[in-house]
Automatic annotation (TrEMBL):
CDD domains: LDH_like_2. It comes from the Bacteria. Keywords: NAD, Oxidoreductase. Residues 110-296 form the D-isomer specific 2-hydroxyacid dehydrogenase NAD-binding domain. It comes from Streptomyces pyxinicus. Residues 9-326 form the D-isomer specific 2-hydroxyacid dehydrogenase catalytic domain. This is 2-hydroxyacid dehydrogenase. Belongs to the D-isomer specific 2-hydroxyacid dehydrogenase family.
Length: 331
């Protein structure tokens, strides 16, 4: 059986081909799965999707018509998949429920320190042999307050790094994490966390309850000189509201590895095209904002874990087994 993998990055391809070499053949495609590309999957019982593939009802119906019976998603998030339609069509769906939390947490800190210490601006200047320090002053993290929204595996690693900096820790989550409590974290209501934190990092999944978790009211509750980092899901932040606050000169820095309308943009080369998304274009103009292209997970360690788990998910599907990764079981 040949597995068809959509949305494969160049660095991922050899890892995917090596992982699938023993159990199955695999064909890697750079193109993302959409209504236009779904017919390519005809004749493939199993396809593998990425987080920016679009598996809406129409796409799933096209896959089912072509004989696809299993979708192996190469990510933890699965808000891009219509699970109800998949179940009605008899398409098994599995995801990667766990991979290295250090990859995302460390990158969140990379964003935080980059905007705090004006690293991008400094690098641009020195490339032009401009070695002035004007406008490059940052702040010590030691002694300041880190607010962690979502204290699961990734949030806990982020908190551990913050603890290493000597920061006071505030947390917000549905359940308290003993690991974070052991670091001295105090769990508080969201409004208090926003009001008291110098650095706020988001580590919650995207679901209807967390859509625009950071909305206009939340942004106004934050300190004027706060740092906001989102390495989780773009939909957690109301981007238009964020732009409005940035126009008022607020926030020391904002680091975004995700964007709520990133599908069709991120992972693609758009350098020779006009960007029609006015909100994203405006966001890019602020000197205190750093946007990266959903790369927080993108370490050799994490990607290897993701691919290995994807292979196991396919083998589980063939054997009729369920696991913690199963979203829609085999009928």
């Amino acid at each position: 059986m040949e597995i068809l993998a959509f949305g494969v990055q160049a660095d991922e391809k050899p890892l995917i081909e090596r992982a699938f070499a023993a159990p199955h053949a695999v064909r890697c495609l750079e193109v993302f799965l959409t209504e236009d590309t779904a017919p390519i999957a005809a004749g493939h019982e199993v396809i593998s999707s990425s987080v920016n593939d679009d598996l809406n009802a129409r796409v799933l119906r096209a896959l089912a018509a072509g004989g696809t019976r299993m979708v192996a998603q190469r990510s933890t998030g699965y808000n891009n998949i219509d699970l109800d339609t998949a179940e009605r069509l008899g398409i098994t769906v599995a995801r990667v429920s766990y991979y290295s939390p250090h990859s995302v947490a460390e990158f969140a800190w990379t964003l935080a320190m980059a905007v705090n210490r004006r690293v991008v601006r400094a690098s641009t200047r020195t490339r032009d042999f401009d070695f002035r320090l004007d406008g490059l002053m940052g702040r010590d993290m030691h002694g300041r307050t880190a607010g962690v929204l979502g204290t699961g595996k990734i949030g806990a690693v982020f908190a551990r790094i913050a603890h290493g900096f000597g920061m006071r820790l505030l947390g917000w989550d549905a359940a308290e994490n003993p690991v974070c409590l052991g670091l001295g974290m105090e769990y508080v209501p969201k409004d208090r966390l926003l009001a008291e934190s110098d650095l706020i990092s988001l580590h919650v999944p995207l679901m209807p309850e967390t859509q625009h978790l950071i909305d206009a009211a939340a942004l106004k509750a934050m300190k004027d000189d706060a740092i906001l980092v989102n390495s989780s899901r773009g939909g957690l932040v109301d981007t238009e509201a964020l732009v409005a606050e940035l126009r008022e000169g607020r926030f020391t820095g904002v680091g975004l590895d995700v964007y709520e309308l990133e599908a069709g943009l991120f992972f693609l080369d758009k350098s020779l095209e006009a960007i029609e998304d006015d909100t994203l274009a405006r966001l890019m103009t602020f000197p205190n904002v750093l946007v990266t292209s959903h790369q927080a997970y993108y370490t050799e360690d994490a990607v290897t874990q993701i691919i290995d788990t994807t292979v196991r998910n396919v083998l589980d599907y063939e054997a009729g087994r369920r696991s913690q990764n199963t979203l829609v079981p085999r009928g």
